[in-house]
Amino acid sequence: MAHVQQAVVAHLPGDLFPGDAKSGWWMKAVQLDLEAKGLIARETVSPLRLHKA
Known about the structure:
alpha+beta, elongated
């Protein structure tokens, strides 16, 4: 998931996420929202892996 967070940070506005602060929480909120909508799904493995549903 670290590579996903690095990719996400590039798209976040710097004034809302200075120094990438709280970007991990924002990414987790988006992940949970997409899971709830059925757009992505988790695999039952460790570490966590996601894919399009």
